[in-house]
Amino acid sequence: MRDLDQEMADRYRNNFLKEIEEQAEMGEWVKLCMQCGLCSGSCPTHFHDGWDHPPHEIFMLIRAGKRDEVLQAKGMWMCTSCYNCYVRCPRKVPVTHVMHGIAEYAYRIGRSPKGQSTQHLSTTFWNNCIQTGRVNELHLTQTLYFKDGFLAGLKKFIEMSRIGLGLARAGRMNPLEAIGAGHKCKDTQGIAAMLAKAKELEARRKEGKG
Ligand code: SF4
Ligand code: SF4
Fold it and tell me: Could you tell me if the CB of 40 is within 6 A of ligand 2?
């Protein structure tokens, strides 16, 4: 993973903006930002401690070539996709999508912050979905609860057990999901074929042939 990061750093030496434009989904929009700050001012979550850089700062850092600071930023992972920034940007920059595109790129080359909760949730959700076409709620919850260790997980598990039981009784969560059983899509092969095609199209887009 580290090699891919180095390969990209070498390929785009001294031109981080170009790297983001070509490698991060929607990254080509960054250059249109005029630094008015409306996106960050409209963001309902950026006052939370988890944010290090709000959107307009991320875009400014990209243009300033601050590769390490951007790729390791927590800001992109704090975005809740409320779309406030997107609808208010006077330059019509799809801020939400650009933020997610940069986060995905940082993850892909192994530079994203380790142990960040949203990242953990996203990767667990994704890995789960590509296997069965459906999310395994119990597995997802378990991995989140036990992310910070067994005791912390057990405490959370007991705290939330009443809600878990309620979900199971209402048929919203299947206890068998704990051992990998439970609901899944009928056509898992179709899901796999669809994802393989999407991957192929994405690879072509990144090579500039799509
Ligand atoms: S609102 Fe748009 S133009 Fe203004 S800082 Fe944010 S992205 Fe840039
Ligand atoms: S979409 Fe994300 S970055 Fe934009 S305002 Fe909402 S939380 Fe903030």
Answer: no
Domain boundary among 92, 112, 132: 112
pLDDT over 80 at 178, yes or no: no
pTM above 0.90, yes or no: no
Residue 7 lies in a domain: no
Q: Tokens in use for 69?
A: 């600071």
Res 198 pLDDT > 60: yes
pLDDT tens-digit map of 9-57: 999 998 999 999 999 999 999 999 999 999 999 999 887 777 899 999 9
- Domain count of the fold of the chain: 2
- Determine whether the shortest distance from the Cβ of 71 to ligand 1 is under 6 A: no
Q: Can you give the residue range of the structural domain that contains 122?
A: 117-199
Residue 113 DSSP label? P
Ligand 1 pocket check for 36: Cβ under 6 Å: yes
Q: How many residues does the chain have?
A: 210
Residue 175's identity, in one-letter code, is P
Q: The CATH number of the domain where 89 resides is what?
A: 1.10.1060.10
